[in-house]
Predict the structure.
Amino acid sequence: MMKFPDLGEFRLVNKILQGASPLKMESPAYRSWIPAGDDCAIFDGWLATKDLSVENVHFRLDWSSPEQAVEKHIVSNISDVSSMGGRPKIALFGLCVNRNWDEEIRNRIVAAVAQGFERRKVTLIGGDTVAGDVGMFSTTLLGMTDGETTLFRSGAKPGDRVYVAGTLGKSAAGLWILMNRPEEAARFPRLVEYHLSPKICEDAGAQLVKQGVRGACMDISDGLSSEANHLALSSGVSIEIDEEKMPIDEDVLEMCDYFGLSPLKFALNGGEEYELLFTSNLTKKIYISSNCDKNTPKSDEIHEIGLVNRGCGVYLNNKVGGRITLNAQAWSHL
């Protein structure tokens, strides 16, 4: 029997692939093609997305464990597929090993990658490994929808209601604590944990489609203010959000009260939330079933926060009766 040469890179790759989910002979039932510009592109029916996670930009190993860093990376990809109503199926994974990582960190990252994809029944079919001055994870993820319907950013129509799945502000609040008051991290452990390793309902988009949602949808990776503007611009509509209806997370409210901060800023501009922002004209109650991860309380709740109108732009109706333009406040890496 032929064996891999006994080289470090081959041993690492072999460890990642050991126990991988089997590749199923299945392909999308519905053929479609959509170029870049949404949370996923679509080619021949496959949903396709790619995310990078760079050490000291997206994760820090002095804050998080190797397992948390890997989980956050995987979730960032899966939320893109979910936002279009799909389920992840196949992945290609790239790993840049930081030359300064010791053997224990390398082994823990390799195990977390292998287990993270296998636990979700995502088949890892290939990738690449290199070494460099900082660590980096790169995943190309392919998914498919359960049926003919796909959710797009451009699907909002006047008269639709605007919804958020889950609560807002958690990740940004956790990041603020780590950056500004790390000695208080134990006081708000769920916020810190959510920033380091977010737990979401990973099939939320598929559940929405199954219930008849046919509006616009995207995941909140760059903050509600930015994503609402993306939806409005992509759909050629205006969006009106009611401050009183925004589901600011209870721990965020408590944390902001403790430190004297504005919870609204975390809810509007906080990135890496990975909850879904979507629109729908359904009159029946929309819900997410309780098979979601309960490490994030209220992760399966749907909150109506506004309305889609004719026109352009995004507006916030504040608690004192005023109406202001809500500009995008997206994080930029450049």
Notes: The chain is about 30% helix and 25% strand. The two ends are 50 Å apart (CA to CA).
